[in-house]
Design a protein that fits this description.
By secondary structure, the protein is of the alpha+beta class. About 40% of the residues lie in helices and about 20% in strands. The strands form 3 sheets. The protein has a 6-stranded antiparallel sheet with strand order 5-10-6-7-8-9. A two-stranded antiparallel sheet has the order 1-2. The longest helix has 23 residues. The N terminus is likely disordered.
Length: about 240
């Protein structure tokens, strides 16, 4: 394989080995938060990654030294051009794989995140191109998050825990950190909380959660779960876009 044929996974910078697997995880999380216009700070990364702040500080310093991120005077983190290119390629690959696993291989919806994580690190450019062709014109992963480079952005202006009582709520996306909880994803799928489904909001409580009705089914989600779901609200049961 020539230098020009190498996959982005084996990129090198100034003679230094490319990002470690752990750095790649952080790059993806920073990309997700920035794309959702959330401030990227060490405390938020520690919360997402389930690690201590000193652990985040250590790896962030290493990523800054290798030129993948920058920090401003307030400590907010942003991707450099190189970091963004790497992160976007990883996110695109992951979401295309999830689409492939559901649409082509019919893998259960709640299992695809972990399967995509296993596959994405070994995906060659040739196989990636074939898989992209098989998923066709899909613009989002099965959880409703946009595939980079396909002309769409995040949709859904209302978090479920903020949907008013009496409105009709159409779920459009499930935030990325929820995808890592296989049991939660299985529960959402079992109860038909998947992108595109509409529910009536029949009750809302900051302490107890949100109660939804779909056909004859009624279900209550606790606030911390409702906060992971985004969609649109309408005053009538017509489907929203």
């Amino acid at each position: 394989m020539t230098t020009t044929d190498k996959h982005p996974n084996v990129r090198r910078r100034h003679g230094v080995a490319g990002p470690t697997e752990k750095m790649r995880e952080y790059l993806e999380v920073i990309y997700y938060l920035a794309a959702r216009q959330e401030p990227v700070i060490g405390a938020r990364l520690a919360e997402w990654m389930h690690v201590t702040p000193p652990t985040v500080t250590n790896i962030v310093q290493r990523m800054e030294e290798q030129g993948y991120i920058e920090r401003d005077g307030r400590g907010e983190i942003s991707l450099t051009e190189e970091g963004f290119t790497l992160a976007e390629a990883m996110v695109r690959r992951h979401r295309v794989l999830e689409r492939f696993l559901v649409d082509v291989l019919d893998v259960p919806w709640h299992q695809i995140h972990e399967e995509a994580v296993r596959l994405e690190h070994a995906l060659s450019p040739t196989l990636e191109a074939r898989i992209e062709a098989l998923v066709g014109q899909a613009t989002t992963c099965p959880h409703g998050n946009p595939i980079p480079g396909r002309g769409v952005s995040y949709v859904g202006d209302t978090r479920l825990d903020q949907a008013p009582i009496g409105t009709f709520y159409t779920l459009l996306r499930i935030v990325e950190e929820a995808e890592e909880d296989t049991e939660l994803m299985r529960y959402l799928q079992t109860n038909r909380l998947v992108p595109g489904t509409q529910f009536e909001v029949v009750d809302q409580s900051a302490s107890l959660g949100v109660t939804l009705r779909h056909d004859t089914q009624t279900i209550t989600f606790p606030p911390h779960i409702a906060a992971l779901l985004w969609g649109d609200v309408a005053d009538s049961p017509e489907m929203t876009k």
